[in-house]
Design goal:
It contains 13 helices and 20 strands. Strands 3-7-8-15-12-11-9-10 form an eight-stranded mixed sheet. Helix 1 (about 5-15) crosses helix 9 and helix 6 (about 155-175) crosses helix 7. It folds into two domains: about 5-295, 2-Layer Sandwich (BirA Bifunctional Protein, domain 2); about 305-400, Rossmann fold, CATH 3.40.50. The chain has helices at about 5-15, 30-50, 65-70, 70-75, 100-110, 155-175, 195-210, 255, 280-295, 315-330, 340-350, 360-365, 385-395; strands at about 15-20, 30, 55, 60-65, 80-85, 90-95, 115-125, 140-150, 180-185, 215-220, 230-235, 240-250, 260, 270, 270-275, 305-310, 335, 355-360, 370-375, 380-385. The protein has about 400 residues and is an alpha+beta fold. InterPro entries: aa-tRNA-synt_IIb, aa-tRNA-synth_II, aa-tRNA-synth_II/BPL/LPL, Anticodon-bd, Anticodon-bd_dom_sf, Thr-tRNA-ligase_IIa, ThrRS_anticodon, ThrRS_core. Keywords: Aminoacyl-tRNA synthetase, ATP-binding, Cytoplasm, Ligase, Metal-binding, Nucleotide-binding, Protein biosynthesis, Zinc. Belongs to the class-II aminoacyl-tRNA synthetase family. One of its GO terms (molecular function) is threonine-tRNA ligase activity.
Length: about 400
Amino acid sequence: MLDEHDHRSLGQRLDLFHLQEEAPGMVFWHSRGYQLYRLIENRVRQQMQREGYSEVRTPQILAQPIWERSGHWENFRENMFQLADEGGWHHALKPVNCPGHIQLVQRMNPSYRDLPLRLGEFGLVHRSEPSGSLHGLFRLRQFTQDDGHIFCAESQMREEVFRFCRSLHAFYADFGFEHVEVAFSSRPAQRAGSDEVWDLAESLLLEAAQQAGLKCLMQPGQGAFYGPKLEFVLKDRLDRSWQCGTIQLDLVLPERFDLHYVDASGQKRRPMMLHRAMLGSLERFIGILLEHHGGALPAWLAPEQVVVAPVGEAAAGYAERFAAKLREVGCRVSVDERAESLSRKIVDSHQAGVPWLVIVGNREVEKNAVRLRRRDGEQRDLPWDEAVAALVAECRPAASA
């Protein structure tokens, strides 16, 4: 039996998603859950647009030579779903998006004027995780990364790290996470690239972190096989730590793929590559978010923000008109027309995680008003226009607040 605060229980109670044996480690998103998924995706997309990323989309399946060149065939093959075509060529479902973005940059043939070049993708990836390690949304075989890669000159790298780090605190605060810790993960035992390359990458990333004013917990041996990384750790309401955002400095893949840009003198130069994500996995972040808020998501994130509950048949038309007005101004709203008691409707809206219940009866119809009931039980009576304005302010997306 799952604890009621477990994200899997919350997912069932709020009608967000389910998992089943026929698709191990993969999520069936219900309509309400996919609404939440898209709201988070849109918030990340707004951040990407503000920071100058070009959104791209790369193939799900790539042939073995690309994975060999990237180093994943040697260092990550046991975690990749592999398949072969009729010609005997081996392919793999992508576990990461980096090689695909590198293919795009190679086609762009950039000059120094194009740098820093920032690419972003909501990349659906697959990893062959052992069945015993699967755990709700926290550990999946199929998930979506809010992935981004920055290709830049060495002189631009520190500023790019600083820009990324500076934006994260406000971004996480929108979701209700105020406390962020940072860890520095250095070279693992199994890695690609020479010690000289790693020495340079680690020293440059540490220097950038210091310039950004970060105090890092050191995590020896926890870096990716291609480069060191900064990991951003969130604390939830139960004081648990969750690693979410990351930025990694990679000097290995640009060399392995022979990436270059043309400098001001016409010479070929090797760019640096930064791998970055704010959430890491959208699915995992949703699991963290549900447990952090106990299912009571902030109003801007709630799949259903308002339920209008008419009391008595005479109020039904009024309730529909009020709901239509809220939809017109961008609120996600439904009307509870069931022949149930008001107390039953209050309990059900609370169980569904709805932030606001709007109660309308004969008295409200006569006064052209409504009663607003917050999820915590606080109530107030407001005229129609004031109630609409109050709900719009409460339900406004965080990025535009």
